[in-house]
Description:
about 25% helix; Rossmann fold; globular; about 20% strand
Amino acid sequence: MEPGLAERKRILRATLAAKRRGVSGEVAAAAARMLAAQLATAPEIEAAGCIGLYAALPDELPTRACFESLRRQGRECVFPRMQGERSLVFHRVDAWEDLRPGRLGIVEPTASAPVRIPGPGDIVLVPGVAFDERGHRLGRGSGCYDAAFPPGAASPPLLFGVAYEFQIVDSVPHGSQDRRVDAIVTERTIRRIGGA
Length: 196
């Protein structure tokens, strides 16, 4: 990692942490409905074979409304499950109630749920602390999504970063191992990233 990169990432994470924690439940619920509406009309979602989601943490834009909307449309949805220290394995989920608390208290599929690896033609929604207009993403620091979908992977799915509008910043510190997202979806709009 280049000198100073970790510190720049740490500062940006700290800057946005208080803002994310300050979002009221009412605002978060409204943003979740708007997020689901944005995705419901996205042509990329319409064309996707399966859609990867995640169960949002309390300080992240909630994703359950997206899941419920996609399932009502009959879409195949998959969620990541932690395997080992940094490895994510995606499993099909048909009902939110099928998710169980996993490591760090994040709800995830059970090991017995059918495995479905997202690939070309699929979309994976990814969480982030911050994104910039060039598609750079700052995660929480575990590197799980970067490891699951590394830069230059042969047949990757499209990655859609999910964030509140205030999490879009001028520039995200990034290194060579950080995979850019193909689009960023917020409660207000979908920003498609050219050349990501």
